[in-house]
Amino acid sequence: MPALLIDGKAEAKRVCEQVAQGVKAFAEQHGNAPGLGVILVGSDAASDVYVRNKVRETQSVGMHSFEYRLPTQTSESELLTLIESLNADNKIHGILVQLPLPPGIDVNRVIESIKPEKDVDGFTITNTGRLAAGLNGLVPCTPAGVMILLKQVHSELAGLNAVVVGASNIVGKPMARLLLSEGCTVTIAHKKTVDLKSLCKQADILVVATGVAQLIKGDWIKPGATIIDVGISRVDQDDGSTRLVGDVHFESAWEYAGAITPVPGGVGPMTIACLLANTLIAAERLASSSVQV
Ligand code: GUN
């Protein structure tokens, strides 16, 4: 039987519609819509596209978008000064610094300078720790989006074997924590993992976030498994054109999987939808904490 194609675009649209309703209610109650500040330093082409998409989607759900495009030569202290001003600005409820940052800027210092309540990427130590401890915080957007997709396929995740390939702070580690919190038995595979193929074959749920194009082949997959492909790479074709592919070799994986995300149109749209959901959550929490005495 062919695999179920997990439609991230349709699911993201549903999440964005819900966020738009929440934004309307927030604006009616507080007199102003939530605001998201997005900072891009330098001229990385991929980052430029991501930021443009984030700005467009923020506006489409009725939020205010504040965009800060800084030159590559921007110093760390100039960037920290901007973040400090956004931390103090009541019109801004979420702050996102697009990564990667140019060399010479300490990414950890920059992330830590974001007020945790406005850290809509969920990258600060406070939000990382809250997630690890099972406490309410702001959860990184891509793993949050993946969990929504998985819950579309599985009414119950508890007891399933989940393998996360890739151990980044942005995706792999928070992904594993979310799967664990749902009762999955979780393994994180990484560059040093021995016999990745055998490990992948044991996974009921396989989440791949390595940045290595088409790393996972069909015969690495347990028949019927759910495959979530977080990767996106542009590869050359024989005819001189290029196309986008994921970290999973889709054409062969499709034959084995029970359900699989396409690239593009799978996880990507969910990341932005969850960024907007996080911004609304941040705005609601900030508003309720400011009325308490
Ligand atoms: N660069 C690639 N992915 C991300 C992300 O999720 N957030 C930020 N801030 N930068 C990124």
From TrEMBL:
Q: Which domain of life is it from?
A: Bacteria
What Pfam families does UniProt report for this protein, alphabetically?
Answer: THF_DHG_CYH, THF_DHG_CYH_C
Answer yes or no on keyword Cell membrane.
no
Description of how the protein assembles with itself and partners: Homodimer.
UniProt function note: Catalyzes the oxidation of 5,10-methylenetetrahydrofolate to 5,10-methenyltetrahydrofolate and then the hydrolysis of 5,10-methenyltetrahydrofolate to 10-formyltetrahydrofolate.
Family membership: Belongs to the tetrahydrofolate dehydrogenase/cyclohydrolase family.
Q: What is this protein called?
A: Bifunctional protein FolD
Tell me which species this is from.
Answer: Pseudomonas alkylphenolica
Query: Which gene is transcribed and translated to give this protein?
Result: folD
